[in-house]
Amino acid sequence: MSTHQVTLKPIGDVARYLKNLIPANIPETYTIKPIFERVACEDRIRSGVIAFREFLYLFFDLLVSDGHYFAKPPKTPSNVTDYPFLHNLTNLLVDLGYHGRLEESGVSLIITKIPLCTATVDESGKRRAPKIPVSGLTDCLRFLSLCGFIFSGINTDKQMGSISEAQPLMASYPNNPFLLTGLKALSIADMELRTGRRYWNDNNLLRCDYRLLKAEETDILDELKDFLQPLPISVQEFALKLHNRYTRMGLTCSLSILGDTSFSYASIRKSRKELSSRDKYQQRIWAFNYSIRDGYSLFVRVKKTDKYADVIGQFPESLQEKIAAGYGCYKKLGRERCQGDCQGIRVPLDESLLNISKDIESWLDCEMPN
């Protein structure tokens, strides 16, 4: 059995990784779902989303520069991004937005409860400690203050007092008050409109997923373009060429966020039931993937190499070696902790790929279903 321990990535690396997931191109106009009518008018919500995105840029830049003062590693991290401070911070923002009430002017958020910071009693009468302890809450509020938030009704240098209707916490963001509306709407979307299960250690709110607010169905191509935006233009163009080529050939592209972010390409035309994004992901032939471990990659799940050995023989030696090595679970082999090698044969999605672009197309063509 493997005895390798998880090595945490520096918090600055985690921040840079998450910052790349923020959508660079948010449209100026789109119809908002009716559920958000209780929050504000559509124009204000759209402005609030843009303000929240600008806040996130600052948020991640401060994590890069000052995050090491706040984000202390756990004794036994479960993965390379396992910083309790970051999980606390993300979930606290959701709690503030979801349970807070916007003042009529929209310039302040009135907070009379923070459930994650409140002890509870279960059905058997046993007291449960708050998910975010007082010390964790204090650190989070201090960091948010660095980001431009102002909290009235609390002294972050002292232990947190009680929050109630009589003694509420007031949050404001003078740099751009529209942010509070954006936080409110995005928190509702994160709590009520996500298609998958909401996990404590995910960072969905930090993606600024405005698409959850849209009444219109999202075009997968638009999502892919946002995903590729941090890459060189030439690499983006090649990736989009592959997308167009294989969707025209009958593959279905779907987005999966399972820790990593993946755009998977699967043949599902013969399926007799409606498939979830996870189902499509599991049936993928190849995928674009972004992870903090490998960065941007192209993964290919080969199944037919014995049928096109002559084609493989014409590939560059480096690609031949990758294909010959195959893929599988390193953890089961006892070599080391999971490295994601079960996802397929990995090819970095960078400018080096352009030198073998024709070979990549030939390879993917050979893996297409009959």
What does this 3D model show about the protein?
The chain has helices at residues 11-19, 42-70, 84-99, 134-146, 178-192, 220-228, 233-248, 277-282, 309-312, 317-325, 357-366, and strands at residues 101-102, 108-111, 120-121, 127-128, 150-152, 169-172, 252-258, 260-266, 284-291, 295-300, 345-348. It contains 11 helices and 11 strands. The strands form 3 sheets. It has a 5-stranded antiparallel beta sheet. Helix 2 packs across helix 5 (178-192), helix 3 (84-99) packs across helix 5 (178-192) and helix 6 (220-228) runs antiparallel to helix 7 (233-248). Strand 7 (252-258) and strand 8 (260-266) form a beta hairpin. Helices cover 37% and strands 13% of the residues. It has 2 domains: 11-213, no CATH class; 220-366, no CATH class. It starts with 10 loop residues before the first helix and ends with a helix. It is an alpha+beta fold.
Give the assembly state of these chains. Answer: single chain
Describe the sheet with the most strands. 5 strands, antiparallel
Order of helices and strands: HHHEEEEHEEHHHEEHEEHHEH
Strand adjacency order, main sheet: 7-8-9-10-11
Give the mean pLDDT: 88
* Number of alpha- plus pi-helical segments: 11
Shape call: elongated
| Share of helical residues | 25-40%
Count of discrete structural domains: 2
Count the beta strands: 11
Which regions have little confidence, pLDDT < 50, spanning 5+ residues?
A: 331-335
Gyration radius, in Å = 23 Å
Tell me the span between the first and last alpha carbons: 40 Å
β-strand percent reads: 5-15%
The assigned structural class equals: alpha+beta
